[in-house]
Amino acid sequence: MTTGTRPRCEFAQDEPLRVNTHTLDVGTSLLMVTDGITEARNGDRDFFDLEAAVTGHDLGPCPAALTRALLADVSRHAAGGRLRDDAAAVALVRHLPEAPGALSAPSGPTPAGP
Q1: Are 40 and 78 in contact (CB under 8 A)?
Q2: Residue-wise pLDDT tens digits, 7-31
Q3: Integer Cα distance of 36 and 89 in angstroms
């Protein structure tokens, strides 16, 4: 961020921050992307088709392959192979605890810090 600019996303200081939690069922995937991906356009000004890009991808034991492929696809789609905006993707998969490469997590909610 350059000096003197304001962030585009702000929270009102007089409103409490709300936190929502959701539990992913085993085998469920969650993909989060920035508008740099959903609003990427090619030379004909066509938007990137996110749904087509991710349909049929098996996230397997590690979703990093999906995010790498997605960022490569959107870069190829963008006019001249250059994105005009930041592009970020995060993919999460909930596996069975005994799945190869699965991480164990503490049971129950994690207490909030100070």
Answers
A1: yes
A2: 455 556 777 778 888 888 887 888 8
A3: 10
